[in-house]
Design goal:
One of its GO terms (molecular function) is pyridoxal phosphate binding. Keywords: Aminotransferase, Pyridoxal phosphate, Transferase. It holds the Pfam family Aminotran_3. The structure is a single chain. The protein is of the alpha/beta class. The chain folds into 2 domains: about 170 residues, Aspartate Aminotransferase, domain 1 (Alpha-Beta Complex); about 270 residues, Type I PLP-dependent aspartate aminotransferase-like (Major domain) (Aspartate Aminotransferase, domain 2). The chain has 13 helices and 15 strands. The protein has a 7-stranded mixed β-sheet, sandwiched between helices. A hairpin with a 2-residue loop joins strand 14 and strand 15. Helix 4 runs parallel beside helix 11 and helix 12 crosses helix 13. It is globular and about 70 Å long. The structure holds pyridoxal-5'-phosphate. The site of pyridoxal-5'-phosphate has 17 residues, from helix 5.
């Protein structure tokens, strides 16, 4: 959390925020009384802070500004649509952009994921997927089949049920959840696998654990498994090779719905519109998406659903059973119009660029492993994580690690880069339009930020690396 006590041009906003704003994820001690780093402008891969400093937007907002800031085409699409039709009720009317977008998304989705249900963001997309699973199993006469398998390290949202799936440290320390509905499995994090175990053996362990859980609980009680193909907020955890395919097969064999949460990985972050099929070779039953679908210009999310599931419902013994679920802003015409234009930009060269530049992005960041504070740099496509460890031998996340991300962020901010600090990790997921030179700038700043942090820690006598 950046706290600019003395922000020049932003003083009034800072003051107003302290008096009237509740920020997301506040702590009790600061709730309703904090200001965060003021951002005034965005342009391309850059943002400008309240002091007028230009920074590379390292996390692309929250993994969402995929085509970059200040794209006139997107602004115009929103304006044009708002002037034509700003809203219509999706309860008993429809609009053209939502249908056109649905068709284009279906064309990119793997397998028979032919239909879209639009939401307002990622949490509501995940919530919709889970409620759909419940409805589906009620309608086909299996009301006991409702448990959800999730994993350590996962992040799926901030609504009650989606948040109940979250498995990152601290997410649930002070929050309630629908614990009776969720079973958590081990995070598929090769970096934290048991000492002495190969990655292949770790993958076997994860698959065996999954199989054992299904056997132990009974497939007749489990409705779905949900997974981010690459765990994003958990620290860009790329699972072992073939892990997703093997678990997908287990889901199919046991009649569990596989929900692929692509809120981060879709819309070019891994070089494709959806990563499940094109990158991981799997056909989920549902895919949730948000963020990059509008490059963050409008709050929109959604759920791709398999034709097979819809057929099952249409043929069930309960044709009058109602999926009593919908949002005022489902199928929002302005959101769908901007998503259509965003898709034009992605298909018109940005996806190709993201695929081409990704190896350079990963290779340049990987050089940071030379620094003794860095335990691992990992990633895929245009998402990466620099994980710092106090003790490289044991990869031990010691107490010291907890502030390391914020310390690096503070130094990088001075140097011109916004970092997303996550405890001891720095996540990098810039706009997909980033060039090689800009990647060089980003890595140079990050290297300097980490080096300065190491000096600080040595000077304070808390680290001897
Ligand atoms: N799923 C994943 C994988 C996410 O990373 C996020 C947000 O970061 C969400 C769901 C929740 O999305 P939102 O914040 O748009 O509700």
């Amino acid at each position: 959390v950046l706290d600019f006590e003395d922000t020049g041009s932003g003083d009034e906003a800072v003051d107003l925020a302290r008096r009237h704003l509740i920020q997301p994820w506040p702590t009790a001690g600061a709730i309703g009384a904090e200001a965060r780093g003021l951002i005034g402008e965005g342009d391309g891969i850059y943002i400008t802070d309240g002091k007028g400093r230009r920074l590379i937007d390292g996390p692309a907002g929250m993994w969402c500004i995929n085509v970059g800031h200040r794209r006139e085409e997107l602004a115009r699409a929103m304006y044009d649509q708002a002037m034509q039709l700003s809203y219509n009720t999706p309860w008993y009317t429809m609009n053209e952009p939502s249908a056109m977008l649905a068709q284009r998304l279906a064309a990119h989705a793997p397998g028979d994921l032919s239909h879209v249900f639009y939401t307002t963001g990622g949490s509501t997309a995940v919530e919709t997927a889970l409620r759909f699973m419940q409805f589906y199993n009620n309608a086909r006469g299996q009301p006991e089949k409702k448990l959800i398998l999730s994993r350590g390290g996962a992040y799926h949202g901030s609504t009650y049920l989606s948040a109940s799936l979250n498995g990152r440290p601290r997410d649930r320390d002070w929050m309630d959840g629908a614990d009776g509905l969720v079973v958590k499995l081990t995070a598929p994090n090769p970096f934290r696998r048991p000492a002495g175990m190969s990655v292949e053996a770790f993958c076997d362990f994860l698959v065996d654990e999954f199989r054992d859980a299904v056997r132990g609980i009974g497939a007749e009680k489990i409705g779905a498994f949900i997974a981010e193909p690459v765990q994003a907020s958990g620290g860009v955890i790329v699972p072992p090779e073939n892990y997703l395919k093997r678990v997908r097969e287990l889901c199919r064999a046991n009649d569990l719905l596989f929900i692929s949460d692509e809120v981060v990985t879709a819309f070019g972050r891994l070089g494709h519109v959806f990563a499940s099929g094109d990158v991981f070779g799997i056909e989920p039953d549902m895919i949730t998406f948000a963020k990059g679908v509008t490059s963050g210009y409008f709050p929109l999310g959604g759920l791709m659903v398999s034709e097979r599931l819809l057929e099952d419902l249409r043929r069930s013994n309960h044709p009058d059973a109602m999926f009593a679920h919908g949002l005022t802003y489902s199928s929002h015409p302005v959101g769908c119009a901007v998503a259509l234009k965003n898709l034009d930009l992605l298909e018109g060269g940005i996806l190709d660029h993201a695929r081409k530049i990704a190896p350079y992005f990963q290779a340049r960041l990987k050089t940071l492993e030379e620094l003794p504070l860095v335990g691992e740099v990992r990633g895929m496509g245009l998402m990466a994580c620099v994980e710092c460890v106090a003790d490289r031998e044991s990869n031990d996340p010691l107490q010291l690690d907890r502030q390391v991300g914020s310390r690096i962020d503070a130094h990088c901010h001075e140097l011109g880069l916004l970092v997303r600090p996550l405890i001891n990790m720095c996540v990098m997921s810039p706009p997909l339009i980033i060039t090689k030179d800009e990647i060089d700038d980003m890595v140079t700043i990050l290297r300097e930020g980490i080096s300065r942090t190491m000096e600080d820690l040595r000077r304070e006598g808390v680290w001897r690396g």
